Amino acid sequence: MPANKKRILLILVFILLFLGGIAGGFFYFSQLFGFKQTVETVPQEVKQGEDASFVRVYYPSEGRLIMEERRVKRQVAVTAIAEEIVSEFLKGPSNTAKSAVPSGTKLLGVYYGSDGILYVDLSDEFRRNFQGDALNEFLLLKGLYDSIISNVTGVDDVKVIIEGKEIESIGGHFLALYPLKNMLADVK
Amino acid sequence: MAALVILSVSGAGYPAETKIPPSKTGAAPGGPATDVSLRFSRHEGFSRIVFETTDEAFIKNSTVTAEKNLIKILFPTSLNLKAQGNVELETSVKGNLYTITVNNPFRIKVLKLSSPPRLSIDVIAAAKEEGRKPATVEGRGPDISPNIRVVLDPGHGGYEVGIVSGDLREKDFTFSLARSMEAALIKKNRTVFLTRKADQFLSITDRAIFANQKSPDVFISIHLSSANDFVIYTPAAEPASQDSAGELYGLMSRQRLYTEKSKALAEGLGNVLKEEFKGDIIFRKMELPLLASVGAASVMVELPIAVASDHSSKTKLAEILLKGIASYAGQ
Fold it and tell me: Residue A172 and residue B160: Cβ atoms within 8 Å?
């Protein structure tokens, strides 16, 4: 074999060994340091056949509370169930043209305290876009409270916070500084 | 949000609603002169003079007094005044004392505001304001006993607008109605207080504290209703029992000794409203924190938007609500 051909063959062998080393090294270190491909799960509407449950949501409407059954994704954690319910509550009732739930309100978070109180953090629209009298404010808070309490076990009381902060009142008639249960005694 | 302090004093023989600490007349101005810009504007029935500076303490520590035909404004330091436009009043400055001479009967309204710090003084022509008072209130219907103390609470205020319907804004209407009732009561030399005296936000707690400080016999919170009927709320607090004495020290349970009186006041108001407006009156018991916190006969009256939207109804409403108070107080 001519010397030139031997040299070319050796160079090819070196290149192959080098590439093989890189591939092997990547495989070894990726296992060692846990490099994994991240897969984002996109929240989806509950589809037919998917694991779902029905919840009862209470909406303020024309001076009273109306109950609607809503199909939501089945959840296990208290906060996850509460998030599903509050999200449905904020959508408003399906059968009335004008929702008494303040428009544009977003759910910012739900926190479950060791005291059994569920803290519902809503965007400022909940306060800013509220339009109503004392009964409207009462029904808005009672609808939110009843929707959570009747669906989530283990929650003793509900407290509304706005943009992560306590505020005195949503509409100027009731105090939001305290959990809702005692405030929402039945109207006589 | 601008902080707001409201003081109101009367001059030329009119009784003072709030007393201002007497000025230390003749006190030597302390420290260097403060730059103050001065604005004057004339409005229907009153003139407004505004002192604006960058020093919050300067405004905070200034005092305003009204004596006979003089308004004296004592500042903590002497002034370096820059007037914007003409001041159409007789004024003089001597050191830290600014004096305004007013030849006609007047009363003043003083506001201390922040952002930017400023002192606003409204010089209100007394004769003109009296002309706006509802003449029908005086000398008609049952009178309110002279020893009855009334606190009126105009609902909402400031950024809390309340119900909006067309041009009607709840915070403005409730304030305007409360002012009409206040004017009628003052004219009869009755003791009346308003929880807010301007378009300002006031928390529920602050309203309750203010009301309790005035030891009223009657407390009425004025609001609008989304419904077509008048709604009168009474506190849902249960009457005090012997074992609940300890709870009475808490603000939220002050109402417990007054539930029967609140019910009687609601009936008194409801009867006159029904008589005048021929509509249904809805009586509702509700755990409203403001009513539960006031140690007096307390109700919240919600007026229908349709009635409030009628510009001629304000005087009539003021008269009727005062008749309702008189009806309760006469029992």
Answer: yes
Closest CB to A133 among B204, B205, B223: B223
Cβ separation of A136 and B285 shorter than 8 Å?
A: no
Contact with chain A for residue B286, Cβ under 8 A: yes
CATH, domain range B4-127: 2.60.40
The predicted-structure confidence for B244-275, as pLDDT tens digits, reads as follows: 444 444 556 678 789 899 999 999 999 999 99
pLDDT at A1 over 50: yes
Q: Within a domain: residue A179? A: no
Distance from C-alpha of B245 to C-alpha of A47, rounded to nearest angstrom: 58
Tell me how far apart the terminal alpha carbons of chain B are, to the nearest angstrom. Answer: 44
Residues A59 and A140 both lie in one domain: yes
Query: Could you tell me which of B213, B253, B220, B248 has the C-alpha nearest to residue B237?
Result: B253
At residue B250, the pLDDT reads 52
Exposed, middle or buried: residue A1 (CB in 10 Å: 0-12, 13-18, 19+)? exposed
Q: Residue B242 pLDDT > 50, yes or no?
A: no
DSSP conformation class of B160 = B
Which fold, B133-329? Answer: Aminopeptidase (3.40.630)
Q: Are B266 and B326 in contact (CB under 8 A)?
A: no
Q: Within chain A, what is the greatest distance between any pair of CA atoms?
A: 109
**Per DSSP, what are the bridge partners of residue A161?**
A121
Chain B nearest CA to A111, separation (Å) = 26
pTM recorded for the entire structure: 0.64
Gap between the Cα atoms of B54 and B118, Å rounded: 8
CB pair distance less than 8 Å for A169 and B204: yes
Measured between CB atoms, which of A136, A175, A188 is closest to B236?
Answer: A188
Question: What pLDDT, in 10s, does the model give residues B18-63?
Answer: 333 333 333 345 578 888 988 888 776 778 888 899 888 888 888 8
Residue contact B236–A185, C-beta within 8 A: yes
pLDDT higher at A114 or B224: B224
Q: How near does any CA of chain B get to the CA of A49, in Å?
A: 43
Predicted ipTM beyond 0.85 = no
Judged by a CB distance cut-off of 8 A, whether residue B160 touches chain A is yes
Residues in chain A: 188
Q: Are B62 and B119 in contact (CB under 8 A)?
A: yes
**Cα separation of B300 and B306, whole Å?**
18
Over the Cα atoms of chain B, what is R_g? 22
The structural domain count of chain A equals: 2
Pick from B160, B205, B223: CB nearest A134: B223
